[in-house]
Known about the structure:
two-stranded antiparallel ribbon; 2% strand; mainly alpha; globular
Amino acid sequence: MGERRDHPQGSGATDNPGALEIEATVVLGLRVTDWPALRAAAVAAVEALEFDGIDAAGQRSELLREVQEDPHAALGALLHPDRLIGALPGIEALGGTLELSTTDDFAPDFAELFPLDGEDEEAGDWTLTPRTACLLHTQLLALADAAYDDLEEHGDEPVVAGEDHDWAIFARLPQASWPLHRSWRRAMARAFDDLAEDLGLGEWPLPRCPGEELALRLALADARGLLCAQPQAVADLMGDLPADLYDYDWEGCSDELLGVYDMAGQDPEEDSETRLETLLAATHPEGWFLSYEEAEEREPGRGYRR
C-alpha cells in the first residue's frame, strides 16, 4: 500500500522526481522452533552492529545480554527495519518501528497429537487423552503466566507468612523456597512452560526434575479444581475434541506421569507424592532443577518466555 508524492520535501528528498514514498505494513506470525539457533544468529547480528555514544561497549554488552535471554529481543535484533531495509537495493529507509508480542492464537491440535485408539495401543491401556492434555496444557500455561506476574510485582521480595494472599504462585510452594531470588523463580516459571511445551509437541509431560514434578502436581490440582468449579468453561475449552473413558482421570495421571524417573534411589514402594515430599525436604531448592539421573536434560540455553 503506498502513496505517490510528486514533490518530496526535506533533506531526505530524492533527486528522482518519480520516486515513491511507500509505507509498508508487514504482519508476521512466527513460532520459535530452535531457540539456540535464533539466539546465535541474534548474537552475531549484535556483534556486527556499530554503537555510538559515550558507553558503546556497555550498550553492546547490554544488548547481547538481552538477546541471549529473551526471544523477543533476539527477534528484535534480527527483524529491525534498518537491518531488513539495508539488504534491499534501490531503497532509502525513511524510518520505521518494530512491535513484537506473544500471541495466544496458536493452539496445538490435541486430537492429532494424542490420537485415541492408536494402532500401537493395546486394549485397556491407560492413555493421555486429547481433552486431558488440553486442560493440563491450559493450566500449565496459566501457572507460568501467574509465576511471571509474581516476578514482575515482587521481584526478589521474600514470601512472608501471613502475606501469602499477595502471591499467585510462589506462596503455594514449600516454605524452603520462599526467600529465593528472582533467577530461581524464573526457573520455576519456566518449569511450567517446559511441561506445556512437551504437551504441545505431543509428548507426555514427564517431569525431569523435582521442580517440574512440583509444577505438574500444581497443574493437576488446578485442572481438577477448574473441572469441578467451572465444568461449562472446561466444556467450552474442549470444543470438538473427542471424548474418551480416560478423560480427566487425575489418579491415572498421577500414577503414569509422576515419579517415572528414579528419585535419588528412594524407596520405589513409596507413592510418588511421599517420595517427592521427602526429596524436596532433603534438597536445597537450588537443586530442585537438577535433572533426574535417567531423564534427558533439557536444553540449558532455551531461555525464558518473559
